[in-house]
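Notes, p. 3: input format for complexes.
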Amino acid sequence: MPLLIKNGRLVSADSDCFADLYCEAETITRIGKNLEVPPDTRIFDATGKLVFPGFIDPHTHIYLPFMGTFSKDDYTTGTKAALMGGTTTLFEMVCPSRNMSAAEGYETWRAQAEGKAACDYAYHMGVTRFDAESADQLREIVRKGTASFKVFLAYKGAFGVDDEELYHTLKLAKELGVIVCAHCENETLVAERCKELLAAGVTGPEGHYQSRPPRVEAEGVHHLCTFAELTGASVYCVHTSCEEALNEAIAARQRGVKVSVETLIQYLLIDKTYAERPGGEGMKYIMSPPLRDAKNQAVMWNALRSGLVSTVATDHAPFDYHTQKITMGKDDFTKIPNGIPALEDRINLLYTHGVKTGRMDLPTFVACASTNAAKLFGLFPRKGSLAIGADADLVIYDPDYRGKISAATQTQNLDYNAFEGWEIEGKPTVVTVRGQVAVQDGKFVGKVGRGQLLQREPNHF
Ligand code: URP
Ligand code: ZN
Ligand code: ZN
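Output follows (461 residues plus zinc ion):
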């Protein structure tokens, strides 16, 4: 059935106007004032509401075997949670263990999603080992439509690659025209500092920060950018948390390095004192890189506004507080499963604390929560835009909604929420995926299994 959204304020990354928007099948086909439509059209009156292109989370882990356990969401709970929060496309990191081939890794992640996703999704192909066999398999994975890689400069002995592997991964990426996402922390510094802290009797979650101070992350960014400079590859620093790391990326960009920067909603809003909370509570707030000193937050907000940081992601990595974080990490901070989930709440938090506070205007909000990711990762203008011919992924957003975040009412499969009790000022009322309504009046009404694995072409040269 065709769909008409009438009387809305249509906001994209480069425009802001009042108009009607009409969709047929899966696509936006008309935008204009007082559109005439066929009688069988489903009509939503968006008077007083904002209409955005579907939001894109460029960094999630729905399926993640990690630190001796598994993330809690699956593609059904994860994609439903995404949609409830206005995210209509998510990117998942394929993270094979080092003893898995790239092809096995890709197939494992693909099988996890098949038939289970309610929103669209795409992969960043994790390169956790690089040899002749991986190179051939990676070429084939790119040919099949996965046009980005992911490397970890951290997690020694797990996902982390050494410098030789990093160099050859970037050379291959340059040859194929794919962008390489990177977790930037110096793994040797982290490993050695962890040993020293534990030997000195520091076992609680506060040790996590001490093991990975800002310079450890800044060195990772500097390291990546040096390799990108010498190979000519395009790189994307995921989960950038602090000024020191950002400055390394800015300096590299000024030398001509093709580097883009992602931050997370968590770094913008919560700081390291959360991870220092007593009684095990701090474990809810353990992720890598760690939450930083609050002074970094203004730097990151300003960098978003000025375009130095392109995207706000979540790095959604859901591990339960009671059955995973506390039980595994109670005697040793290095065993706390890393991750602070936020997939469901990213947009409402960014709107509340970014737009409502005047830190960013509406087009910037759309750019960093949707359009920039679509552009960087080969989905634009199909995704991330309100244009004729684009997928009808739409969010009708109520800026007058007032409510509170709570684990008791969330859709993501988790026993806590890092933003428990936080007030939000705005919420999606209707969310569509390729022309079908997936959320209406705060309820999931979509179809599990309808989400598509998106095919992308390399676009970085
Ligand atoms: O702490 C984090 N970030 N957990 C997820 C894995 C990763 O490093 O992205
Ligand atoms: Zn990471
Ligand atoms: Zn991640």
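The CA atoms of residues 206 and 393 lie 42 Å apart.
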